[in-house]
Queue: 2 jobs
Job 1
Amino acid sequence: MVSYAKYIFRCITCGKTFPSQDAPEYVCPVCSEKQESGKSLLGVLECLYNYEDYKLTHSKNNAGNEIIFPPVVFPPLKVGGTPLYSSEKLCKKVDIKNVWLKDETVEPTGSYKDRASYLVVAMAQKKGYNKITCASTGNAASSLAGICASAGIESYIFVSASAPRAKLVQLAAYGANLFPINGNYDTCFELSLQATKEFGWYNRNTAYNPWTIEGKKTASWEIACQLNFELPDQIFVPTGDGVIISGIYKGFFDLLQLGWIEKIPQLVAVQPEGSDAIVKALAENEKDISKIYRDEADSVADSLVVNAPRNAEMALRSLKESGGYALTVSDDEIIKAIAEVSSSTGVFVEPAASTAWAGLKKARETGKITAEQSAVILLTGTGLKDIASAEKATQLPLPVEPTLEAVKSVIRNPWSVSGVRCQVSGVSN
Ligand SMILES: [Zn+2]
């Protein structure tokens, strides 16, 4: 499902380009000399292809079957090709022209991160590595571990010991070499960089490894093809480190370079109030990357909790160049959105994913999207990853006696003490 093309890397901080045969493994060697530990990355690399060459042998009509990539052989697990659903119910709730859900809960390990891991693992194998490491809030780690299991190579994972239990258990089940660290994501990120240098592993850290961004672009190609190139006006992206939004931008950027689309949809970064470094940086037009930071980031949407968004520079550029914007939502709004998305669409989402829907509601309330416009919300991960948060959004029924009488009693009086109908809070009111 890929199509190979020649490429170069370009540093987004200084603009220096590197031919593929002479490309740095991770970030720009010049800019990274000024890198401060624990801060957003300098010198993130973007992959640019020879689009003119590619156009000669490829057509828009076949874009759904071929995505422009460097030459690699992918692992056996099937990644991408996820559904795009139109939701009348959600559409009515916000009263806009159309709402589509990009359902990433059906990726093999249950999250959008598989798109990045897929390419990174393929690249590691091409380069001859048989050990890969990463730091993660949970999903990137379980994704890497699952895809490494599929490819038959070893993963070394640094993840906060406080990550949701399902994510830790998933990692262990995949056979990852797991380091549950007594520290936050930012601590794990720095530690994994040290381990990479010490042990010579390949590193999948998001944005630090440029292929993570390139892997995450594929959803844009899919959305374009699924909508027959009639693109939505806005795309709502749950945002932590800023790599997914940069990947979405890159996918559309490729299509624009090929002349297959006329403009990139407005991208909307949605962050939790407690982890809002990118929203603030955009509002303040912050140019100093080291200042795109917040202390003690915290949210129920654990996947989005970062002090220093590692791909802040590229995320901000993606927002500006797409004419997009950024907004925050509260943890209460995120929890409420879990029940709302799940009960309205049948797609069971984790807090980070419901953040996209909470963001669309907020945008509509504040007039940032109009009734005549359409939106895609990226549902980035399954609710099975974080049952504890989903539980906050629901009310489980009490046990019911195994008699028809008891069942009738519950039907007559759902709120009696003998049994409570499973009621989704916050949806009907
Ligand atoms: Zn540079």
Job 2
Amino acid sequence: MEAPLELDANTLDDPGEILAIISDPERRGALYPYLHRLRSLAPCFHTDQLTGSPAWLLTRHADVRTVLRHRAARSDHRGVEIFDQGPAGRIFYEMQLNTLLFMQPEQHDRVRSLISRAFTPRSVDLRRERIQQVVDELLDPVVDANGMDVVADFAYPLPMVVICEMLGVPAEDLPLFQRWAHDSHRRGELGLISEEVVARGEEATRGFQDYFLGLIREHRRHPREDLMSALIEAEDGGGRLSDEELVGSCYILLQAGHGTTADLIAMAVNALLNHPSQQAELRADPSRMQRAVEEFLRFDTSVQISQRVANETMQIGDQAIPPGEVCVLFNGAANRDPGAFQDPDQLNLGRDPNPHVTFGMGYHTCLGASLARLEIQTALSTLLARIPKLQFTSEPPAFRSNLFLRGLSTLPVEFA
Ligand code: HEM
């Protein structure tokens, strides 16, 4: 269910007004009509309205892909500036500088090559059986009930358990991680940051840091067959990850690895509930799931926005973007661009080809894409196989207020 539209997007002619609606935390449900309107009026819109400093907002599929693949467009330390809250928020800020998304290019490429060696499709495939087990364990207690909250009971715990286990975090510490992850996530919600949010973000970041440093020490003493030991062992021409890089890498794997996937699963279930005939077809032929997941990834993505800085003049369509300027890429708008997808607002579970940009591309292509695909496929296949009838309840689903990371805060369903 999408929130009702209060303003017909097609009657709006001022890109600034449209962006104000897009940024309004109360209107997250109805996002795409406004992104369409912004794309058709100002596909390369220069404004400081979104992040507080001047940036080029790109909404066309071709332009987003051009920037993602451009050798002069990198994500680096400057991308963290939007999170700067002065000395009171320093720990969170500095942690971001040590994550792949915001490292300087040279450091990024070195750290990424070390992490990806420990994060291969083969190591992901080894998780297949365990992921199925976690999905079943989450559904066991609810299948005989009348319903559940898809977000809290199913979509959220699955990727959290999976990534924590991969990193070697014991199950009893999961609640700690859930709290820290929640507080860290809120700290990233631009426009909604209060003193309290900054303080809790600091506490959560310190919690992560201390915990991971302890876990790293423990793994150094007693290496195991997990991702953490692989990260510690990763070596490239004699260079290893420093402790700061190890902590930053665990942090980004955890933060990038759970909320994004959880949100995608819940929004995919939401899409299925909104499209009963497609749900029935998928139930009738589960072999269509792999392609269907690509369409869920395109249709409503959890990572709506990425950022790049131009290191030299970049030609984007008719627009020359000068060196040093920031591009904000609207992945979700690119995925709904009629210039790239036929009937982009239609959910088409057989869509092929499906060149969505949900996992980005180029230098920062999502490292966890194969893990995310496996989790989403297993979650949806098992949910449909074990629960023969799923429907909305009288309580509607609700979107969270975050624009950059889109997701539902609740999705109550009943098993009629
Ligand atoms: C449906 C789920 C997911 C979505 C939609 C998603 C999306 C993305 C996107 C768009 C980027 C690129 C950001 C940019 O270009 O600035 C990215 C990067 C990244 N993702 Fe994912 N992701 C998902 C799941 C995961 C998982 C499960 C993991 C790991 C366990 C993960 C780890 C990462 C990491 C480490 C990066 C940074 C790569 C780099 O900067 O080199 N992601 N993700």
